[in-house]
Amino acid sequence: MRITFTANGKPVEADDVWEGESLLYVLRERVGLPGSKNACEQGECGSCTVYLDGTPVCSCLVAAGQVQDREVRTVEGLAEENGELGLVQQAFVDAGAVQCGFCTPGLLVQTDALLEKDDQPSDNDIREALSGNLCRCTGYEKIMDAVRLASARKCAGKGHGE
Amino acid sequence: MSTRTIAGQKNLQNINQASADGIGGSPLRPDGTLKVKGEFAYSSDMWHEDMLWGMALRSPHPRANILSVDISEALKLPGVYAVLTHQDIPGSKFYGLEIKDQPALAIDKVRYHGEPIALVAADHPETARRAVKKIKVEYEVLTPIVTEEQCLDPETHGYVHEPHEFKSHGYGNICHEQKLVSGLGVTDEVRALADVIVTGEYEVGMQDQAFLGPESGLAVPAEDGGIDLYIATQWLHVDREQMAPVLGLPEEKVRLTLAGVGGAFGGREDISMQIHACLLAQHTGKPVKIVYARDESFFGHVHRHPAKMRYEHGATRDGKLVFADCRIVLDGGAYASASPAVVGNAASLGHGPYVIPNVKMHAIALYSNNPSCGAMRGFGAVQAAFGYESQMDKLAAELGMDPVELRQLNAMAEGDHMPTGQRIDSPAPVAELLQRVKDMPLPPPLDLENLDIRAVPGALSNTSHGEGIVRGVGYSVGIKNVGFSEGFDDYSTARVRLEVIGGEPVAMVHTAMAEVGQGGVTVHAQIARTELGVEQVTIHPANTEVGSAGSTSASRQTYMTGGAVKLAAEAVKLALITKGRRRYGWTQNDIDLVGGKVVSEADGVLVAMVDLLGDEAIDLTREHHHRPTQPFDKETGQGFGHVQYTFCANRAVVDVDVELGLVKVVELTAVQDVGKALNPLSVVGQIQGGCTQALGLAVMEEIIVKDGKVRNASFTDYLIPTILDTPPIPVEILELPDPNAPYGLRGVGEAPTVSATPSIVAAIRQATGIALNRIPVRPEHLTGTL
Ligand code: FES
Ligand code: FES
């Protein structure tokens, strides 16, 4: 089948898509957006998290056909227009929250979504929001630091003060 | 031609971030920006126009004879380009890290659940999957040899390998063994010297490395008949050494380039899909990509050895250890992998960081029809630490002593001897680490009044509102060796090039070190900056064009490859200064490179590096070997076997819901001596990550194997700690330099994984009063509903 949808604001189409393909496969192997990662392809690790019409989902659990005419935003779409790192991306780099980095794309999307909803989450809020994203390297402490840093910068940017 | 970049080329850009940060600073990862943009090319991201997908057929039985394999139906499927069995292997059919006992594809029999039998290459992963299903294999299923008793009685239960095969190290179903005796050993007379004796039997389940990036890579056939492989691995050169004979190619025609690695933890030390992808590429003449699904990853790599241990410790009334006797049985599974070295570690480190006058030890690894086990973070020291630290707590209880005091009383220090007879010739601040971890402030007690339910055991499941929760605190300390041991000529190679680019001096560092997430690339740039006084450093992609860097394991890369980068950079510096001396006739003895200039303390700036270099590049390669070690004597275990030791102490605070059997680790504190922190941010990150894997082993992680069959090969059923399971991990580092190591540094990554597990179990014991002798501790162990 042929599917057409928007990825990071640009229209994309993919031909000869087999019905069983996931959105993750289509993004990674067909439309040249390998940023979303394939760690379990069972909805358990969150590495493949993308926005689908503004809601974070595990793209490995979304059948390709389901995204027809819908909007997808991946980690590749989190940077600023001018290519500068987005606020959450920069915070992960600065806090040392990236080691192997395989979990990072999913965590970035999920963190972005969390801070959209609540720009001053408590530690328990952060842990709850990120509990679907496995990271095997960091021990999560630096990820907590990164989210707190992103939150502080976001609030400062909005004039909440740090 | 390909339309997207294949392989790691993209990963190289931007690695030459300018920064003044040399060693001891915490510059940011050079690959961090690419990683947060989703642009870093991991091995599973490799892509080539016209590439095929490879997949393996794996055995559903742990032990069976293969009567026939029929590939004809699979070959007929449209889109299938090749179906291969062992008969299609052009070269040697076996490979292995230490013993070449593993067939690249099963020959006549299978020895473990998931052993690869045949390979398929097809135009779509789904086609490959369907083709795999169409291969017909006829088996004669045999009863698997899975328990220690069965393994040790081959006359009754059979041999995993035929008696004369691969018996270079052991006999029967014993893959390797190591004994150790020191002092008077452990005899009845020695036992009589102790006032108190405690014994215990302990068991450790099979842990998985569970790195997130699946085994994957792309093999591209080259015009010269060779092959290029883009791969996530821990050691490019040892992969090549094992691959080339199987592929029937000389080593120089097998070229490996490191693709982005999504974690490793020992699980990528062995070959997984490397040979398979190359065989398929050779046969089809097309690029072949293999990406394991998570279940295949559980089958496709070796795990941490499960262990059964028996310990006996004797002490005087005032707490001085008199003797220790120990037997450690590690289940190595079907193939040897790193089992011999794991046994050496378990035996030589198995009594912990304690001075014990009389010691006996017997460690063995078995061949069985269970999944193969090999390297995982902590490498034989993890299992033993659970044993000896449990014993320390037991002994303290028996003596009515504080468990930390008992440990401190017996703690080894610089100048003491290991049970192997090796003198500890650098700082060993075991007692101090324990003191510091004990002195750190405790977390506040659980506030039942203002309870956030997410903070209690069971957390989000809303299973409890705080009733039935008790708190416990536990301590531990561990010892780990750094680098390869037992006489192995461990070395690493680095090439450093200095030249002028865009009017600035730029250093390029080229090594074959596998960056697996640990941060080696950051540290190499720091070292080059420090030694050469430049800002700009480029890290060349790791490949087999430069000499071996050895493995990214055994906490050795900063020591070994960092050391090689230091040597090469020093040589470049000397060459540059010599050039200046020749040209300008400098005679000063205090010439150095600082801030892009050649300077002398007495005379200030002598010349700018760019002017001295001109168009010329200085390009030098150096090898770093650590001081030689010796094999352990087979019977006595004596010998200067290890290069360096590293120590970490932990305190765990846990809340246990005794009704539900649920545990929440509230805080896990670590204090570690790192000799010199080349990059404190990375060091702390490594310690926290190591502690978290230890937490996983303590309370949740286990590959369940029943009758040789793996029951939980998925992230649904094999649980690794989430951010909700993981507590704050305060870390304190000590920097007591090791005079024998580059910059005085000490390997970091593994010690916390060795030491932290027992502290958590000790805390649970303290909270519940239950004697726990098996990890992971599961709810049924705590509720008595086993
Ligand atoms: S890859 Fe989608 S959740 Fe793991
Ligand atoms: S950084 Fe490796 S999995 Fe998170």
Automatic annotation (TrEMBL), chain A:
Keywords: 2Fe-2S, Iron, Iron-sulfur, Metal-binding, Oxidoreductase. Coiled coil: none annotated. Residues 1-78 form the 2Fe-2S ferredoxin-type domain. Pfam families: Fer2, Fer2_2. CDD domains: fer2. PANTHER family: OXIDOREDUCTASE WITH IRON-SULFUR SUBUNIT (PTHR44379), XANTHINE DEHYDROGENASE IRON-SULFUR-BINDING SUBUNIT XDHC-RELATED (PTHR44379:SF8). This is (2Fe-2S)-binding protein.
TrEMBL record, chain B:
InterPro entries: Ald_Oxase/Xan_DH_a/b, Ald_Oxase/Xan_DH_a/b_sf, Ald_Oxase/xanthine_DH-like, AldOxase/xan_DH_MoCoBD1, AldOxase/xan_DH_MoCoBD2, AldOxase/xan_DH_Mopterin-bd_sf, Xanthine_dehydrogenase_dsu. Residues 37-143 form the Aldehyde oxidase/xanthine dehydrogenase a/b hammerhead domain. SUPFAM superfamilies: CO dehydrogenase molybdoprotein N-domain-like, Molybdenum cofactor-binding domain. This is Molybdopterin-dependent oxidoreductase. It comes from the Bacteria. NCBIfam families: pucD (TIGR03196). It holds the Pfam family MoCoBD_1.
